[in-house]
Task: structure prediction
Amino acid sequence: QVQLVESGGGSGQPGGSLRLSCVVSGNIFKTYVMGWYRQAPGEQRELVAQMSSGGNTMYADSVKGRFTISTDNAKNTVFLQMNALIPEDTAVYYCNAKHPYVAINYWGKGTLVTVSS
Result:
């Protein structure tokens, strides 16, 4: 059974940093595209960053240069390092695993990130 469990959310100050982690169980980590999405209050869920099994990454324009997605294959864990936080980064962040060829998606339950002074 596939499970994605996020951790690392919480409160941060503008200009500060937070790191999110997502532990993936089930034999998908080396095949699926791993990503982070977020959903702010009243907004649609949006892609923040993703990494293919080959290591290719893409980022939303709003986080380029500030956020970094990475993986620890030995620990089946994907990270999102968030630097230079701004209040607009406030959202629930969701870990996602997407099959590269067929419409199969797995989601974590989300972790709340709040950026305020």
Remarks:
- The two ends are 40 Å apart (CA to CA).
- The mean pLDDT is 95.
- The first strand starts at residue 3 and ends at 7.
